[in-house]
Design goal:
Low-confidence stretches of chain A: none
Distance between the termini of chain B: 61 Å
Structural class of chain B: alpha/beta
CATH topology of the largest domain in chain B: Rossmann fold
Shape of chain B: globular
CATH class of the largest domain in chain B: Alpha Beta
Number of domains of chain A: 2
CATH class of the largest domain in chain A: Alpha Beta
CATH superfamily of the largest domain in chain B: Thiamin diphosphate (ThDP)-binding fold, Pyr/PP domains
CATH superfamily of the largest domain in chain A: Thiamin diphosphate (ThDP)-binding fold, Pyr/PP domains
Number of domains of chain B: 2
Order of helices and strands of chain A: EHEHEHEHHEHEHEEEEHEEHEHEHH
CATH architecture of the largest domain in chain A: 3-Layer(aba) Sandwich
Largest interface: A-B, 48 and 46 residues
Number of helices of chain B: 13
Structural class of chain A: alpha/beta
Helix content of chain A: 25-40%
Oligomer: heterodimer
Chain lengths: ~325, ~350
């Protein structure tokens, strides 16, 4: 069935809620309104107010309440309306969600999936464009997942909802309706902790995720026209990270480029570059490069393109790698 | 009974007067054996607390938040709970653990510095302590929502101090609870200090209990050094929660007799006179007077109770200290359901390092 990422997410939620009555969706505007991006459309009518809860406007309360639900065996799926508004819940996420399994030696687990749209490129208001995934990747115990296609969105979300680990499920707002794809009607999982080689190439490896995947695809096609073969690794799960897949690719191509829209300093690109340095140094023909958001506050929409990595910036970095 | 004491008028529920007599009409009607059980739990709590302090001074236990002065709150509240009810505790709840049957050895094990002490025994509905202040409050509300969803006739209790009422999570939790009418009992141990900061610096409201009014459910202030007042208020609030009549905020007006933790020196911020004044209101003393009035207490009984408490405590210490130390696997195995390759590599590296005889 041909669908957008919004529809794929909606389908995964509906099917898993149908299958498992422990799943509760809660958040701001997720019920009657169907979510501000319509990802939860129809769930309220289908499953009722007890399972699709319009909550008070309180992010810490939403995550805190979700934690408490897990104590009685439920599997809540809280939505934070935008990643820029997740910070009031940071204490609940860092101090409890991520730690409960460990600090109780497995007695209490937190099988919840926190869904939130992230990232620039939709010309939104201030605080609606952040991509702060690295903050969460620094926290042991969290699984951080980012889909880049409708297919992966459905499969990764289904896997997240079935996981016994807490998942931060970051939905690239720019891709919600950017692309339609044939997605199987029946439920299926795309495994967590597995990156995917989404384009084959022999000359360099580009590692990206979420909304940056279509951007690096465009750059790779332009490079192809110039005779340069770019392999693309879509990381998909950012933490715990599948290092093997991109290290194997870099060992083959000898060059690596990391592209992310988060700021450069202490971004995930640094961890990826360090991993390549630790494990594939002698395979490298050039230093690992990064194309990222700037180390500045995400600008308002009029200047967004100056911040956001586009295909041309990626192509310039490809040239630098090949000319090194 | 709760509705009889309006927190907006500064009214406070008290069952026992200073001499251990019952205020007319408020006797919760406990049987003699139940009264004695409550007293025995209070004595055990005080003994276990004193032992923890001693162990800390001897370097056998880490930083510890003493409970002395809170025995009426802790034992009164927990004694009113039923087996299926849940507790979302804060970090100064020793008497609740003892009353609910949480092994004291586990409790000591935690404060000795091992996470294994937080592994609540199966069948016991005690969530692990919350050290980030007030963060347990919205969690307790979530458990309340789950109980409602599952149609379980249970109550969810959460405890916190007066300082916690300044946190956003207090507001968010109580606000949620009011909106959804969850089966929660919010129990504030107002012990007048959040480390050094006095209650008056936490809120301009005359009482903490009156905050419930704005959330749309009842609040009541009780004498937190009167175990029967705590018990009576808790019993009613718990029954309301279990039967779908919604949440209650109970403010127990009490005093922290010890330091905030063993790293604190309360003499820096409060007077000797003030502490001495509260010593006279010792919750054990008042309840003992009550038992004596009912001919349920004498010196021989006291000695038997104290001896039993010492035995209970010493046994727990021995068990806790005999526990094996954590091994590297314990530290790595519970971060995720299945260990990711990076953690496996780090664990292997740590074990190789230790195998080299290094520390």
């Amino acid at each position: 069935m041909i669908m957008t990422m919004v529809q794929a997410i909606n389908r995964a939620l509906a099917q898993e809620m149908e299958r498992d009555d422990r799943i509760i969706v809660l958040g701001e505007d997720v019920g009657r309104d169907g979510g501000v991006f319509r990802t939860t459309e129809g769930l309220f009518e289908r499953f009722g107010a007890e399972r699709v809860m319009d909550t008070p406007l309180a992010e810490s309360g939403i995550i805190g309440a979700s934690i408490g639900m897990t104590a009685l065996g439920l599997r809540p799926v809280p939505e934070i309306q935008f990643m820029g508004f997740i910070y009031p819940a940071f204490n609940q996420i860092v101090s409890h969600v991520a730690r409960l399994r460990n600090r109780t030696r497995g007695r209490f687990i937190v099988p919840l999936t926190i869904r939130t749209p992230y990232g620039a490129g939709v010309k939104a208001l201030e605080h609606h464009s952040e991509s702060t995934e690295a903050l969460f990747c620094q926290i042991p115990g969290l699984t951080v997942v980012v889909p880049s296609t409708p297919y992966d969105a459905k499969g990764l979300l289904t896997a997240s909802l079935r996981s016994d680990d807490p998942v931060i499920f970051l939905e690239p707002a720019k891709l919600y309706r950017a692309e339609k794809q044939d997605v199987p009607e029946e439920p299926f999982e795309v495994p967590l902790r597995k990156a995917a080689v989404v384009r084959q190439g022999k000359d360099l490896t580009i590692i990206a995720w979420g909304a940056m995947v279509p951007v690096v695809r465009k750059a790779a096609e332009a490079a192809e026209a110039e005779g340069v073969g770019a392999e693309i690794v879509d990381l998909r799960t950012l933490s715990p990270m599948d290092r093997e897949t991109f290290v194997a690719s870099v060992k083959k191509t000898g060059r690596a480029l990391v592209v992310h829209e988060a700021p450069k300093t202490c971004g995930l690109g640094a961890e990826i570059a360090a991993t390549i340095g630790e494990t594939a140094l002698l395979s490298l023909n050039a230093p690992v490069l990064r194309v990222t958001g700037q180390d500045i506050t995400v600008p308002l929409p009029k200047s967004e393109d100056l911040y956001y990595p586009g295909p041309e910036r990626v192509l310039r970095a490809i040239h630098r790698l090949m000319e090194y | 009974m709760i509705e009889m004491f309006d927190p907006l008028k500064g009214e406070r529920l008290r069952v026992l007067d200073e001499t251990g007599g019952i205020v007319a009409g408020l006797d919760p009607g406990l049987a003699d054996a139940e009264l004695r059980t409550i007293y025995e739990r209070m004595v055990r709590t005080r003994a276990a607390d004193a032992k923890a302090l001693k162990l800390q001074r001897q370097g056998r236990l880490g930083t510890y938040p003493p409970s002395r002065g809170h025995e009426a709150c802790q034992v009164g509240l927990a004694s009113a709970m039923a087996g299926e009810d849940w507790l979302f505790p804060y970090f100064r709840d020793l008497g609740m653990y003892i009353t609910l049957g949480y092994p004291l050895a586990d409790y000591y094990h935690l404060w000795m510095g091992n996470e294994a002490g937080l592994k609540t025994p199966e069948g016991l509905n005690v969530f692990p302590i919350a050290i980030p202040v007030a963060s347990q409050i919205p969690q307790a509300v979530g458990a309340g929502l789950a109980a409602k969803y599952r149609k379980l006739p249970i109550a969810i209790v959460t405890t916190f101090g007066d300082g916690a009422t300044s946190e956003g999570d207090f507001h968010e939790g109580l606000n949620f609870a009011g909106v959804y009418r969850t089966p929660n009992v919010f129990f504030c141990l107002n012990n007048q200090f959040a480390i050094s900061v006095p209650r008056a610096r936490q809120t301009a409201a005359a009482t903490i209990a009156q905050k419930a009014v704005a959330y749309g459910f009842p609040g009541v202030q009780v004498d937190g050094n009167d175990v029967l007042a705590v018990y009576a208020a808790a019993r009613e609030a718990l029954a309301n929660a279990r039967s779908g009549r919604g949440p209650t905020l109970i403010e127990a007006f009490t005093y922290r007799m010890g330091d905030h933790t063993t790293s604190d020196d309360a003499a820096r911020y409060r007077s000797k006179e003030e502490v001495q004044e509260w010593e006279l209101r010792d919750p054990l003393l008042r309840f003992r007077l009550h038992l004596a009035k009912k001919a349920l207490w004498d010196e021989a009984y006291e000695k038997a109770v104290q001896d039993a408490a010492v035995e209970f405590v010493e046994k727990a210490v021995a068990v806790a200290e005999a526990r094996p130390a954590a091994v590297p696997e314990d530290l790595f195995a519970f971060t995720y359901a299945a260990m990711p390759p990076e953690l496996e590599a780090q664990l292997a590296d740590l074990k190789a390092f230790l195998a080299e005889g290094r520390r």
